[in-house]
Amino acid sequence: MNPISLHQKTEYFKNVAFEAGFLHCGISKATFLEKEARDLEKWLTQGKNGQMQWIENYFDIRLDPRLLVDNAKSVLTFAYNYYPPLPLERENNYKISKYAYGRDYHKVIKKKLKHLLNHLKEEFGDFNGRAFVDSAPIMEKIWAKKSGITWQGKHTNAINPKTGSFFFLATLVIDIELEYDNPTKDRCGNCTLCLDACPTDALSLENPYQIDGSKCISYFTIELKDKIPSEMQGKFEDWIFGCDICQDVCPWNKRKSAQIAHTENDFLPSELLQEMTKKDWHELTNELFDTLFLGTPIKRTKFEGLKRNIEFVKK
């Protein structure tokens, strides 16, 4: 029996990913991110991470996957669809980012990745590898670009020309050499819709492809633990957890192929969440918060944080 070729091994890895339900799979060589190191250092020096001090931690590891997995050779990047079958009711309701409708994606996708990793080990032997879903110091969007499945848009989200940007990124770092894909090219062109639409100037014409995290609605409604600055009053457009404005206006998300709904039951909103109105949000209790958001990303804000956001936008 002929030994499996590098190409065959690479195709096997990708096919297993597609069978597991991932939209895309791209592969790049595990190496130090030299340019990104300079960019990240400058961004942090300018304070654009706000109170997200965790981004400052593990600086060296964040830029070199070989520090996460001994003798790492390859970084595999996967995309998993979260575009909902139906958005939550927008009339007489507050807005929640689409990714947070259902169960915490970290747990859902991490489980899939671990199954995928175990399957590959059964096929190729016990190699060294680790799975990451937005839970470790690794620059997923950079690796997605290097692996050819996305480019990073002017709103800084990862965009695929066929499936837009409403997907999660996940990563496998392994010590197996594979065939590597070529980086994708930027296709934003002269479009500035996302920059023009940002109500808090977290995105700007002066600094396209760079977000001021300290001004982003998602930052204010999720990461910020203090009082929301008064100068932001009236700019949230009813968003109380996260924000999809820059993605909603993106032409790449207007394509039919980018609006194919996910089939992941865990990402569907509960009936109770679908029935919420502004009046219900105003009367939200700690008990209802626990019932609505147990096991979801929104649990992260805690009851007090979500109430703060609701009070801020209703004024």
Automatic annotation (TrEMBL):
A Pfam family this chain is assigned to: QueG_DUF1730
Recorded superkingdom: Bacteria
Keywords: 4Fe-4S, Cytoplasm, Iron, Iron-sulfur, Metal-binding, Oxidoreductase, Queuosine biosynthesis, tRNA processing
Tagged with keyword Oxidoreductase: yes
UniProt keyword annotation of RNA-binding present: no
PROSITE patterns per record: 4FE4S_FER_1 (PS00198), 4FE4S_FER_2 (PS51379)
InterPro entries per record: 4Fe4S_Fe-S-bd (IPR017896), 4Fe4S_Fe_S_CS (IPR017900), QueG (IPR004453), QueG_DUF1730 (IPR013542)
Domain 4Fe-4S ferredoxin-type: 176-208
Protein name as catalogued: Uncharacterized Fe-S protein
PANTHER family, alphabetized: EPOXYQUEUOSINE REDUCTASE
Entry's Gene Ontology molecular function annotations: 4 iron, 4 sulfur cluster binding; epoxyqueuosine reductase activity; metal ion binding
One Gene Ontology term from the biological process aspect of the record: tRNA queuosine(34) biosynthetic process
